[in-house]
Amino acid sequence: MRYLARRLLWTLAALVGVSLLIFVLVRLIPGTIVEVTTGIEGQLSPQQRLDLLRSFGLDRPLPVQYALWLWNMLQGNFGWSFRTAQPVAGLLVSRLPITVELAVLTVICVTLIGLPLGVAASITRSVRLKTFVQVIGLVGLSVPNFWASIVLIIVASFAFHWFPALIFVTPWQDLPVNLEQMFLPVMSLALGLAAVVLRMTRSSMLEVLGQDYVRVAQAKGLSGSIVLLRHALRNALIPIVTVLGLQMGTLLGGVVITEQIFGLPGLGWTLLNGVYQRDYPVVQGAVMLFAVLFVLTNLFVDLTYTYLDPRIRYQ
Amino acid sequence: MSGVEAELRDAPRPSAWPVRRPGYRRFARRSPVTVIGAGLVLAVVLVALVAQIIAPYGPNSQDAQPLLRPDHRHLAGTDELGRDELSRLIYGARVSLYVGGLAVSIALACGATSGVLAGFYGGWVDNVTMRIMDVLFSFPAIVLAIAITSILRPSLTNAMIAIGIVYAPIFARIARGPTLAVVTLAYIEAARAVGLPNWKIMLRHVVPNVSAPLIVQTTVSLSTAILTEAALSFLGLGTQPPTASWGLMLSAARQYMLLDPWIAVLPGAAIALTVLGFNLLGDGLRDLLDPRIRTL
User: Does the distance separating the beta carbons of B296 and A196 come in below 8 Å?
Assistant: First the structure.
């Protein structure tokens, strides 16, 4: 409990740091919001300029601006988009489910591919399977996910006459269509992560399988699968969860590119469009949300340790 | 292996002591994968160095039909503007290595320096530095790089700076650990007692202790930096046209990928092979220099 409180406090501190960094980064943009929005053509009298600055709160000292911005964000006010004048918070919230769905499906897929293959590679005597798994591991690590997406689209269109959909369908509208749309993006993201999980599973399993308690379990006559799952895999899981947690940054980064390629209007897509249109409130909000997601997943990974290994009781 | 060496190796040994082969060669034999990695890296570096000599056309000369299929005149076909794809792939190696190399240098210089300083001085220096690094660690790498490039305006140099900043914290953490372990040792105290200035102690007695993990991380980071450059250029936030960059070529080819799959597949293959080379080399170097670290 003490640990949990401290870990939460730590997370909060990191997020405050993140918000400070984003605030500073946005102030580094040459020109104020007024110049960015009105452009060079905008002919404003000094009085109009001052009024505009005041309406954005830009006439106040920086620390006050930061405090106000943070306070507004805590109340769910992320500012307004320069382009559409809509509240950024609403925009981001409407995009979030797509990104979360993509990420969750990818993690499920990674687990379903990486774990069984890794376990198989650790117990098999077949050289062919071992080589296959090793090659998959290396290729997966080196192939950029945007290239994987392109190759998947080419293969799908030539072999199966399948093309990426133009309009996104939510799972509430039509689940089968939605899952079909998600299939290729998820595969392109899962390839690299599955490689990492697979390699870690293999080496972690090999280590655990050499332990005495595994031999004891085998000696007392437990069936092979029970030894494998309950004695070996469960103990091998901690380093696997650790690398999976470390890869969350790669996953969230990959989501940005994948959403762009497949035209999935998620958080990453919103971020990139904000960047292309110089819509800084949207960029600022999306980056902040990505950091929050990342920090929270890390927190979640840390907390699963105590579940996986009850011996870990953080002091 | 030359004949003389083979003779020496096979000659009967005079005593019970085994003749020791040079460590590197034994290592190379035991881990052929590392040799393949080194070969790939060497090949890419070589191609980048002699690009002018081996490229059949200039990277930006438009002297053919657009989107030609590969033939004897254009071994990899031409791109959407009629530029020779092979020549652009060759020149692209230059951009990748240049941006990746300089970005990692920035990360190494900033990260390792702050890590060593943090570990050496401890106290508030350590606290402040590592908290800054924690904040940088709280972003998914690409997202932070996108944010930085979008604010500095997209360009090759700014992509380099962004990648450098994003990867600096890893180096800081890696440099700090061994520094913390070393500063308590007697020979550092001795160096202090002799009156050596701090910077000299760090340079002569601390840095050699952190160099092995840093070398490994540099190799691994080169692969991620090249990937990140490609990703940023792919998104239009890195290298700008008409410079030949693999990520940029891939992004341009995206519109024509169903018409002409070649130009969409080849730049990605170039990226993948380069990254694979650095990954294999990094894995091997880790085994060689730092056997305590368990390989992933």
Answer: yes
Please tell me which residue of chain B has the smallest CA distance to A158: B258
Which member of B138, B276, B296 has the closest CB to residue A295?
Answer: B138
DSSP for residue B18 = P
Would residue B63 be called left, alpha or beta, if left means φ above 0 and alpha means ψ between -120 and 50 degrees? alpha
Q: Do B146 and A153 touch (CB under 8 A)?
A: no
Residues near A259 by beta carbon (within 8 Å), at least 6 away in sequence: A98, A99, A102, A185, A265, A266, A267, A268, A269, A272
pTM (predicted TM-score): 0.84
Of A150, A249, A294, the CB nearest to B250: A150
Q: Residue B65 contacts by C-beta under 8 Å, 6 or more apart in sequence?
A: B78, B82
* Triad B197, B200, B206: Cα angle to 5°: 120
All residues of chain B having their beta carbon less than 8 Å from the beta carbon of residue A142 are: 223, 272-273, 275-276, 279
Question: At residue A291, what is the residue type?
Answer: A
Distance from CA of A253 to the nearest CA of B (A): 5
Complex prediction ipTM: 0.84
- The amino acid occupying position B155 is S
Rounded to an integer, what distance in angstroms lies between the CA atom of residue A259 and that of residue B55?
35
Name the nearest CA neighbour of A121 among A49, A60, A209: A209
Tell which residue, A259, A243, A258, has the closest CA to residue A196.
A243
For residue range B101-157, what is the model confidence (pLDDT) as tens digits?
999 999 999 999 999 999 999 889 998 888 888 888 888 889 999 989 888 888 889
